[in-house]
Amino acid sequence: MSIFKRAAEILEGKVNHFLDNAEDPAEALDLSYEKMVANLQDTKRHLADVVTERVSLENQIAQAQKASDKADADARMALGANREDLARAELAQKQSELQKIASLKEAHDTVAAQAQKLTDYENKLQDHIEQFRTQKEVTKSEMTAAQAEVKVSESLTGIGKGMDEAGDAMRRAQGRTQHMEAKAAAMDGLMESGALNDPLDSRRQIEKELDKVRATSGVDDDLAKLKAEMAKDKGTSGSGASSS
Prior knowledge:
This protein is mainly alpha-helical. The chain has 5 helices and no strands.
């Protein structure tokens, strides 16, 4: 294989690959259908031309037959009038018309055969176009359904662009939420440790610690007092039950 032939094959392969990727199958089917319909219209025009020629030949044959019949009638009339010379002339005209009719019929048979072939071809082409049209619509419907299924599958699996972007947005939102939660926890810890101060709280850190101790001590005192009262109430209730 020559280097030029190999280069041509590579170029052709790349062109075909480009066309496969760039071509819309539905548009390609519609274009093929339109070309077939145009071909059918051309066939109809050719058939019309041939049929017109056939009709023209038939008219010429009819005219020649009429002229032949008239020449025969005139020859009979001339012979009846003892004009053999006129009768001979009319018979010669009749033979000329008969020869013309023979030539016209031969041409008519040829044209009629062509018209029949074109008619058969037109019928077959029309049937083929109708079958192609039906199959085209079925194929386009199947292709549309398949494309929709692919898009839905891509969306569900995250391959599709929209779902992929939604997933990225969700991950960014979750990451930002986690970051803010961690920051809030850190701020609470810093405020708890005294590293950060509440701008509305003017107490010193030691005062805060003392207030916390007081609050804890107060809670402890209240808890002890509550326990004592409940024990006393329980003892009173028990004594009353024994005396009765």
